[in-house]
Amino acid sequence: MDTVNSEQLEEIIERLTTLERKLDWVAKRISRDGYPALGSAERPQPRSAPVASQPDRPTTLPTSSSSPAAPPTAQPPRTPALATYPPAKPVQKAPAAPSHNAPAAVAPSGSTGAAANDPFSTRPIRQKRNEGNIGRYVLSGAAAFLIVSAAVSLIALVWDQIPDGVKVGALGVVAVALVAAGTIVNQTRERLQVAAATLTGTGGALGFVAVIGATLIAGLTPVAALGLMVAWAFVLLLVSCVTAQFFTAVISMLGALVTVGFTTWQVATHPEQAILAWSLIDIYTVALAAVAAILPRFTPRMRLAPWLPTTSMVVTGTVLLTGPSRLLVTQPLTGIVLLAAPCAVLLAQAYHSTRLLAGAGAKEAAGYEWAGTGIIQALALLMLASANGVASSTRNGMSMAFLVLACLATAALLPQQAASPWLRVVAPVNLGTVLCVAAAVFALNIALLPPAVAAVVLAAVPVVRVGYSAPVLVLPLFSAAALVVGLSPDRSTVMLGVLAVLIGVLPTASLEALLAPPPPHSEEHANRHLWLSAGMWVAAGQLVLTIPRLLDRLVPADDLGGAGRIMAPLLAGALALALAGMGAFTSRCSPRMLVSGRRAGQLAGANDLHTPLVPTAPPLAWLGEALLTALAVAVLVRADSLDFPLLAAPLVALALALVVVGGRMLLPWLRHSVVSPTVTLTIALSQSLALWWSVIILTGASASSLLVTGVVLATGAACIVIGFRLRATTLRHYGLTLVLLVVFKLALVDLAGQNSLTRILALMVAGVVCFGLSLAYNHLAQEQADQGTIGTSPADQRSPAGRGGAPYSR
User: Fold this and answer.
1) How far is residue 252's CA from residue 232's CA, in Å, rounded to a whole number?
2) Of 1-15, 239-253, 474-488, 550-564, which has the strongest mean pLDDT?
3) How many DSSP H helices and E strands does the chain contain?
4) Pairwise CA distance, residues 91 & 107, whole Å
5) pTM for the complete prediction?
6) What are the C-alpha distances in Å from 771 to residues 582, 739, 748, 774, 785?
7) Can you tell me the distance from the alpha carbon of 687 to that of 662, in angstroms, rounded to the nearest whole number?
8) Would strands 606-608 and 73-74 be described as parallel, antiparallel, or unpaired?
9) pLDDT of 694-707, one tens digit each?
């Protein structure tokens, strides 16, 4: 009783405080018509009387505008009841202690605090009330638990003496009585909402217990029990809307979960009833989803009304996860329909519920809810389709059903406006959910990779429309799963892998074209070029590596007289040359730039072959040279393994082209060999080794033959001449080194087993050649020295930048 009186006293104080603030606010508005909004100490007083010390009170202005000089009439003080009952907690602390007859909760009129601007604010009192509600909820829950425990103990004590019908009937009557009492208390006693929720929640739980007890001990048929539990769940949901209590909706959700669990147990116990039982569960799921979607429109008093569809989504997700695999074994087509129906309902609920939550200001919760939907789909697909005894055709049908439903959910996002905040939250999450479902489909059957990649492509469209560039990288990365397909011995499966790679790589440029501009100063704005460049590199790797790998598995080596072995390396090399020529190894190159040809012929860090923009070769130039050289080595290895030089000739030519194009990326820095001799040595070594290996492959000669020796000697001589023409000292020294190595090889290795006459003639010829090279080297060196010191024209004295080189000293 003391608690009730205290609460009533608090309510009276709160209402009096609110009334007092309203009066102050009205007085301030009236005073602005004649006087500025000053503090109470600065308000004008009648001129005929001295200013008396009295509490702040609002004044009234003359009603007639014809006599402005008439002083305002002072109002008598307020009723002491309004001034002597301060609120339980002051709304705003005054800068000075108020007088004994002034209200403590009223801020000065000149105050700029929140309470002065909002005279109807009762936030502190509400906070105090909410804090008190915590204790009341806890105590009410404890009371409900003790009461239920006492009832259970009493029933257990006299259980054997009570007939089964009386047990179940009494429990049902108690459940209905508690729900009815809770509803009545909710409608008639506004201050007993916690007790009302406790009554309805306890009665709802007892109702489900009564139905289950009737099935177990009173002989109630499972179908009738299912109908009663479904009806009781709907009753609780309606009671939740009438009483505006979300707690009752939670009890209804728990009861629905009990219903699903009961049906699952019934199907496991009586497999012959699986079709009927699960058909009823699907009908219940659809009805519950429809009711939960409609009720938020008719429950404006419930603060958590947007969360009502979420309660039904929990039930639908449970139905999807607990679907019996016996349906797939005994009735494949019917089982696919009955087990895929909850998936369709769950996706429709996710679309509706996330929009409600986003509209209520819970956009992050909407994203998590959509993500949970995708995870449940993937788990259900793996659990149902991987069950024992399920045929492969049934497994594929179930996988395709889930994949089609995921695509339909994505298609529902396409008509949405790109500027919608809800779409900005849901679209990336939907891409993740489709990736989960597609990965589950691929895990069940690798031959389903093409439709899985196509579903990811469709899910990527809304994401790029709202301004996120990550799908440009995610799509080719997901299609890289085709490498696993290459392990299959089935040629048709390998062909499907090639199709999946093409589906994942070709739309990247189109997705980039659909990209919306990123918000300024956002993370997407700062990192977009990284996502696009990474997407271009992954797509290029798929074309150059994955497709030739699958093609190599697709075409056996003995087909076409062994010509099948050259198709994959020819395709890889040709694609690599095309990508390099289109500017793949330039800075910030994206798929769209690559396809459009805007970077064709460009080099990283240089305007052309003679004008570098930076003093040293950039990392992209080194990367391009390394990758193309490595690919050339792989092509030469395949060419060396062929038995016919005629078949190896195209591969040899392709390898030489790859090496030349790779060296071209470093060519602008060749003249600066003093600054960076590594560039010269890299170009010279890669191209020299490729040339010598090509000669060995085409001629079949050994590395110690005179033919290879002559080729090496010619290479050294060419390096010396080209080094003088380009003024590349490192290249000249490389040529001299080759010549010296050839001389020692000729004297110590090639002619070691020859007779004396042949040895003498060979050494003599080699000596003459070296003498001629010495004369030429001396002549060219002297000529360059003379041009650099005397007799030079102004054109010869230009800087390297004027001669077409870079403006950097050598």
Assistant:
1) 8
2) 474-488
3) 30, 4
4) 8
5) 0.68
6) 46, 11, 19, 5, 21
7) 9
8) unpaired
9) 999 988 887 777 78
Q: What are the distances in angstroms from CA 8 to CA 2, 4, 14, 15?
A: 10, 6, 10, 11
* Angle, in degrees to the nearest 10, between helices 363-385 and 332-359: 170
* 810, 800 Cβ separation under 8 angstroms: yes
Q: How confident is the model at residue 655 (pLDDT cuts 50, 70, 90)?
A: very high
Look at residue 728 in the predicted model and tell me its pLDDT: 75
Q: pLDDT at position 132, please? A: 52
The amino acid present at 535, given as its one-letter code, is: G
CB 498 within 8 A of CB 487: no
- Distance, CA of 535 to CA of 588 (rounded, Å): 11
In three-state secondary structure terms, 584 is coil
Spatial CB neighbours of 18, under 8 Å, sequence gap ≥ 6: 120, 122
The pLDDT of residue 620: 92
Average pLDDT of span 189-211: 69
Helix, strand, coil percentages (3-state) for the chain, rounded to 5, are 70, 0, 25
Strands (E), 129-281: none
Could you please report the per-residue DSSP string of 352-408? Answer: HHHHHHHHTT-HHHHHHHHHHHHHHHHHHHHHHHTSTT--HHHHHHHHHHHHHHHHH
| Spatial separation of the C-alpha atoms in residues 668 and 608, rounded to whole Å | 7
pLDDT tens, 425-472?
899 999 999 999 999 999 888 889 999 999 999 999 999 999 899 999
* Residue 499: HSE in the Cβ half-sphere, 13 Å Cα cutoff: 14
Largest CA distance in the chain: 146
Question: DSSP string of 610-668?
Answer: TEESSSS--HHHHHHHHHHHHHHHHHHHHHHT-S-HHHHHHHHHHHHHHHHHHHHTTGG
SS3 (DSSP) at 425: helix
For residue 605, the SS3 value is: coil
Task: Decide: 206 and 174 in contact? Cβ < 8 Å.
Answer: yes
What integer is the mean pLDDT of 332-345?
88
Residue 504 and residue 556 in contact, taking contact as beta carbons nearer than 8 Å? no
When pLDDT is averaged across residues 345-355 and rounded to a whole number, the result is 89
Tell me which residue of 478, 475, 502, 472 sits closest to 591, measured CA to CA: 472
Q: Considering just the CA atoms, what is the radius of gyration of the chain in Å?
A: 43
DSSP track, 59-113:
EE--S-SS-TTSPPEEPPPPPHHHHH---SS-SS--SSPPPTTS-TTPPPTT--S
The CA distances from residue 678 to 214, 604, 607, 718, in Å, are 88, 17, 21, 19
Helix (H, G, I), strand (E, B) or coil at 570: helix
Q: Using one digit for the tens of pLDDT, what is the confidence trace for 27-74?
A: 776 765 544 444 444 444 444 444 444 444 444 444 333 334 444 444
Q: Answer whether residue 758 shows pLDDT above 70.
A: no
Per-residue model confidence (pLDDT) at position 754: 55
Structure tokens given for 379 = 């788990």
Which stretch, 90-104, 253-267, 328-342, 426-440, has highest mean pLDDT?
426-440
